[in-house]
Amino acid sequence: MTIMAPRKFGDSSDGVVGGRQTRFEGDLKVTGAAKYALEHPVENLAHGVLVPSTIPAGRVVSVDAQAALASPGVLLVLTPEDDFGMRVATDWGGNRPDEPYYPLSREVRYNGEPVAAVIAESREQAVAAAKLIRVTYEEAPHVASLDDPNAGEGNLLEHLSASWGDAEAAYAAAPVKVEAEYKTPREYHVAMEPHGLTAKWDGDQLTVWEPSQWSHGMARSYAEWFGLPFENVHLISPFIGGGFGSKGAALAHGAVAAFAARKLGRPVKLALTRPQNFTGYGGRAATRQTIKLGATKDGVLQAIVHRGASETSTYGVWPEQTGAATPIMYKVENLSSEHRVVPVNTVTPGALRGPGKNPSAFGIETAMDELAAQLGMDPLELRLKNYADRDYQSGKPWSTRRLREAMTEGAEAFGWSKRNHAPRSMRDGRTLIGWGMACGTFPVIQAPSEAMIRILGNGRVEVVSGAIDMGQGTYTILAQTAAEIFGVPVDQVEVHLGDSRMPGSAIAGGSMLAGSILGAVHKAASAARDELIGLALSEPNSPLRDTGANTLTFSGGRVSVGGEGPSLTLPELMQSLGRDVLEIRRNTLPDGASMEDQRQAWTTMAKVEGPTMGEYSMHSWCAHFAEVRVDEDFGTVRLSRMVSAFDCGRLYNPRMVESQWRGGIIMGIGQALLEEGLVDMRNGRTVNNNVADYLVPTNADVPDIQVISVGVPDYNASALGGKGVGEVGIVGVAPAIANAVFHATGKRVRELPVTLEKLI
Ligand code: MCN
Ligand code: MOS
User: Fold this and answer.
1) I need a labelling partner for 51 at 20 to 30 A (CA). Which of 88, 452, 547, 622 fits?
2) For a substitution probing ligand 1, which of 511, 655, 710, 720 has the most ligand atoms within 8 Å of its CB?
3) How is the chain split into domains, by residue range?
4) Has domain 287-444+612-758 been given CATH number 3.30.365.10?
5) In this prediction, what percent of the chain has a pLDDT beyond 70?
6) ipTM of the assembly?
């Protein structure tokens, strides 16, 4: 499908990098023309549904499928008995065990794990038949959650520990101390578009229409499962209805659908039900952490001691790093931070917007508020007093850190100076008013990417990349970049994304895509422009040939010598050059990178670089200011105002960025006040596994949110000077709101979400 620019363009100055161009694919989405994975029309479809386990631990003894097989329309029932002939694949590439893979497991490791699947002529028939499947289990003892008395202390992850100075001794000697435990529950992505796919085989070629945050990485996993060359898998994902971390990897239901399609010789569509979305991919792990802060009487931090833990599954390790933000927020000479993972009977938890940094910020940013309260000090002043002049963990200087500006400009816009710092000091009748603040951060992650630019004879400029737009604005910023380089309006650009057969790209994850892919598109487009200039100045039929110029200007849709003399539109230039198409492909790997380097770069995480790989320590930063209104009698909390200031470097499109920040903040509101996966301790099931009972913020829960940019371009962070935007918005929101609730009520809630029963 061709992705066209919106019909309305706003200002022409919007169509360049840094402009406020409206969403490029917006028309297609609001008119329904955009096709999401499960809407893709495929002939002769069969429909699959999963049968989830109903016990949390044990094994499948037998599956009685007789009644299901006799049910109308049923084509196939799959059970752990089947010989799948598949091999284990990896999520991120790298070494994998040479072992068979059973997407339907005989071992049951969590409640909801798929143990059978039914494929039928229609979805309704498959659903009806699935209810007739009888599974006999041998149940084993289980550990339901982090709160289970049998959960234990878990396993220390050395590589996530940080330590310098002598934190325990400095804490013991500090005249002012705070110590507290903070907890966050399981949280879920609840993207509007649920998980699901259609898989179709043509001989040994597999096509998969599936929402994806990483077309190349997921295609590689499918190839690994079936022992195919990467090229044989074609994963198509032009539109995604939200991923938030849940759509970066190929999952068991994808394996079941692809296997069934091959076995039946028919395309198979398999959609997870909303409850199955809670177990198809893990949500954010529940965490707990203890923080001890030692300070002088005038509020100079002496020590931070941090001990954290998060849930993982019994078969995989996903650390939700409670110490991810702790070591880099403040200047401190003595720090010790440790993180443990505690295996329980859950699906392996996973990435959810701002993994690690998010619960980590809840800990350290609430603890700082507690310290400020104990000192009788303004929490803003406490933070400024302990401002980290460098990264004390890596010892490296910041590339850019405008957190001071974020704090002061955010405070100014919020009116923070009018705050009476005593708790319960502000009210409006029976409504207590509280003002709270907290900071947040997210690392700059970099990865190589590739892009292709095609200039057609009719003057249209095409940008082609396997990169993903799940709503962040990838289409828009790529169109702006190409429009700027060729000096054409955005409606002369087409963008093609979301396809594993297109040039390779960084994952739409870790807030790394924009910086990575823009670098590649900028490089390819600049190279294409240079090529055009060379041809225009040398080809015999080019009207620009005898100008004697050594370069040309692309502006206002025309190519000229610095705006003087003869000028041509792109179609005129292409015609004079006798060219129907000019195609240039470039990547951001070092020159001369081998094919193997390229394969690794696009299909694995091998070439991803963290925030301190180079000379500097690079991160996005933010400061949130929240106002809550708490009903004194009922304990209900309403967020009434929010001001957040960010340093994300240069903004490629402030309109998209503001939407990303607000989106992150809104998820943070949910985390602060509503979201909580409730585990039934008897059977390890997440009870509220649907969008009626798992509460996320609605419009009525979201007040006016003012967002402010204080960033400056950071050319260490990316080729065009931007830092990550997609995740930092959520980080620090929950502690800002919980700190506001403390200010309103005098009651400290250390366990999210802040619900009324915790206040009364
Ligand atoms: N941007 C910009 N200037 C910058 C950086 C980014 O204009 N300096 C804008 C661009 O519009 C870009 C967007 O912000 O498309 C996000 O860029 P970036 O921070 O690089 O993040 P990614 O493109 O890698 O997107 C992933 C990120 C993550 S990890 C999650 S989780 C998340 C998020 O984006 N999930 C989202 N934002 C989401 N937004 C929507 N609508 N849906 C999701 O599932
Ligand atoms: Mo985002 S949680 O890294 O997809």
Assistant:
1) 88
2) 511
3) 12-32+446-603, 39-141+196-280, 287-444+612-758
4) yes
5) 98
6) 0.99
